[in-house]
Amino acid sequence: MKSLRKIIFRSILLTAAIALLLVIINMAFITNWMLKYSGSQPPKYSISDISDGLINNNGVFELEAAAVSLMDEQYAWAMLIDRDGHVIWNKNLPGDISLNYTLTDVASFSRWYLNDYPVSVWEHPDGLLVLGDPKNSIWKYNITSTEDTISHVPGLLVGFLILNVVVALSLALFLGLWLYRKLKPIYNGITALPKKEPLTLPTGGVTGEVSRILNETSVILNQQETQLAHRDQTRTEWIAGVSHDIRTPLSMVMGYASELENNPNLPASEQDQARIIRQQSQRIKALISDLNLASKLEYDMQPTCLTMVSPGELIRSVAVDFINNGLAAPYSLSINATEDSNCPSLLCDEQLIRRALTNLIDNCIRHNEQGCAINLSAKNSFDGWVIKISDNGKGYPPEFLENSEALDEPQLLGNHGLGLIIVRRILKIHGGRARFENLTAGGCCASMIFMQ
After folding, report:
1. Which of 42, 177, 408, 414 has a 20 to 30 A CA-CA distance from 367?
2. Its pTM surpasses 0.85
3. How would residue 27 be classed by pLDDT, with cut points 50, 70 and 90?
4. C-alpha pair distances (Å), 286 with each of 90, 127, 279, 393, 428
5. Which GO terms describe its cellular component (predicted)?
């Protein structure tokens, strides 16, 4: 939920920034527009030049060339009204313009319009010069304001800006809260998917399509979870059933092979064959046991009994079992344990840890046919207890080390069987991890690391 609030907060800030930017851009645009178009029609002070260029030669009026040029550039028509209100000269005068005016008429059009023609006036020695523009070409209206109103204009502009900011922030907050309300169910649904919880999100509104997809995804995931659980249960039951069915005939084979191996009436070659049958049967039995244990560990079906054990005594006990069971001459076992390892200080399932140690020692023996020196050590580090099984043999193949940290356990199988996978799973249920590496001086080392 914290990440959702962070997203909403950033969305509000972004919306507010965009709104403020739009306000600034709008104000800049209006200011630029006013400056541009208020200056597009400069004050026509050249009307005085036109007036000066209108010469009276004994009652005949002539417009000088310079004045004609100015008029053609800025005005459409012109006329001169004498003091009695009669038009005594005109140029391009429209047909709907009168030739006689009263004082009231002059006062009416002198600043605004004459028959909808925008006009400008200037005093001439012989009367009033009137210059006109085409209809609908110029907007002319008087804006009157008091000194008090003008003095408050800066404050009004600042207030207008503050009002825009408040409105923009309010809009951003409203949109943020609206977005939060719409996205909260989506966020809760997404966080519930990894937990495999069924979803029933509302499918209305702008997020309805996303909610519908999440609901469908939840149904599919739950169906897959059910199918996977059924498949795993079936596989576990099948492994347990097959293992049980194999044990009885396998025990009979091992029993008869052991009798034949110890029968003095048989030739030595046949006794060796019986010994090989017994050894391979024992190997099959161990593989079946590994398969059962790996399956139980994978699905957390293996019961654990946690007790405080002594790491040093544990590794010595495992080493003694190997020696008493007839460790062949090409192999040797040594122990290297610190003094504090003799105290019960490791909380674990002793039988499972013994199984992990046995698998690692068996791995050293199986992959070094010419023999090797195996060393067991227990040391308490700042992370927790570390039990190492090392040898001076040929070491792990490179492809195994590349895959040893992978989560995909089938990559670990190779020619190492289930032994190392079982080690990893045993360490996992103890909250620890297994590490495999080759030693610089030759050989390899498997570390069982228990986190404190």
Report:
1. 408
2. no
3. confident
4. 126, 130, 11, 24, 22
5. plasma membrane
